[in-house]
Amino acid sequence: MQWRGRRSSSNIEDRRGGGARRAGGGLGIGAILLFVASIFFPQYVPLLQMVGLGSGGGGGGGSTYTQGNGVDDDHSKFLGVVLADTEDVWSTIFQENGARYQPPTLVIFDKRTTSPCGPASTGSGPFYCPADKKIYIDPGFYDVMARRLGAPGDFAQAYVVAHEVAHHVQNLEGTIPKVDRYRRSVSKTEANQATVRLELQADCYSGVWTNRIQRGKQVLDEGDIQEALNAAFQIGDDTLQGRSGGHVDPASFTHGTSEQRVNWFYKGLRAGSIGVCDAFGPNYGDL
Ligand SMILES: [Zn+2]
Question: Residue 55 and which of 130, 181, 235, 272 are 20 to 30 A apart at CA?
Fold first, then answer.
């Protein structure tokens, strides 16, 4: 991806260089945590479910943290440019639909920090917190993607940002609160299936975003699309469960199979329009 020298978003909150100094607990009430990495690290799934049910965290008083130390490195520049690209694309799409896009803030942290959705760590992976409309990313996670998950490349990294921004879009559209309510009223398996649909729609939106930045700015390099498709494949539930040596249990899927993730990304990519990202279908009409 050609990103050097392009506009960087100002909606970046750099918490590195001191990290989070806990002065209180996270809240985690009523929030759906949408870790990309809850599936990268299956051991974190119980945490996800706990917080997702609204019982996570505790304590009050908020939290304080030191502001970034001004480290002006490639990670923050890259993330700033990708975030700016999401702002441009989603502002246009919202405008096309007669609405105004409110961009999220992207928090860059180092090892750990706090969020209203609970604590964040490198291991928990990137996620979007609907409660404060912020995306949390530790750039160290990109090493994990490249080395442990077989998903290298700058556009694989851009796809992760695009996916989390897609959750923000779903939040603005009211889909996340709807799915959250639905999940509370159904069985565990049905709740997981609704989460899968939310994730596949986010992958489709990521494909739409990819289409739009390429059409509008021609910033993709050869191999970029392949990097994103490969990342989507590598983080499919079946592939991750298989890699971890465990038994593959479709009822526990929360993000979709590799094939589904690739297909939904590709669907959005081909169309360049969110109309095709109808992952919920008629059965979810009463969400
Ligand atoms: Zn997600």
Answer: 235
